[in-house]
Amino acid sequence: MTEPADAAQRRAIPPVICYPTDTLPQPDMALYTAARDGADKTGEVLVPPRDARCFHVPAGHFFRISSVEGPQVGDLNLWNAKDLSERFYSGKTRALHGTHLTTGHRMWSSFPTLRPMATVTHDTLGWYGKDAFGGSVHDVIGTRCDPYTGNLLSGTQYHHCCHSNLTRALADETGQSLAQAESQVHDVLNVFMCTGFTRDTGQYFMKASPVRPGDYIEFFAEIDLLGALSACPGGDCSSEHSSDTAACYPLLVETFAPAPAALKGWTPPPPNGYDRSHGR
Fold this sequence. Notes:
The structure is a single chain. This protein is α+β, with helices and mostly antiparallel strands. The protein has one domain. The chain has helices at residues 7-11, 29-37, 90-97, 147-154, 162-174, 178-182; strands spanning 40-47, 52-57, 62-67, 74-80, 83-87, 106-108, 116-123, 136-139, 189-197, 204-207, 216-221, 225-231, 251-257. The strands form 2 sheets. Strands 2, 4, 5, 8, 9, 10 and 12 form a 7-stranded antiparallel β-sheet that branches. Strand 6 and strand 7 form a beta hairpin.
């Protein structure tokens, strides 16, 4: 197409933030920090390489995802433990907080509840920021590696991608069939993954994660949570995923309970206040 005469003026129009967050309810980080300081460890789950495991976190408790043996990224799903129809909504989380999460950001749930599920309270990779390629850590822009895209692009039948890992883990945890569990697996928080968009074509890219053993991201559970974490078959995602060639390592999930009085006055966030009349 021929470029119009006013093309430069059109491109120069400044952007407008779609969802200004000035009025968004803010987490009480000081309260969370104080509660975490006196918290006791209540359990742990070791997620094997190229596999997934589920874990439970009561409202008001903390959970930590750690690198323990080598650079490894993970795909995280969250559900309301009492109602699996309420699940993590990566698209709305991205619209509110941006493409990557760090301390103070929240993981929001799906419609119609649309409320905080978990708040990031500590991130040892928060120093990374945004690199010269536009990459950053802990993204909510990718989906999850899956066997359907693999089959579409290369005709493979690969069963240890994150989508399948999460499906098996949820089925094992809940007793559901694979088909039932698969319908509840959703877009993820890509924990420790370093990603962005190329500046020329706008394509989603990945690069070697900066995570090292001892790094972790920690969350405060705003509601009763069922989580599932997959240790991605891409390892640190420096070259590929959905294969058995990358070096892969386990991920550790630990849970912590604060002292009974540490969260005095705190209550889980209620479901969204929209009346659901939809104009009728």
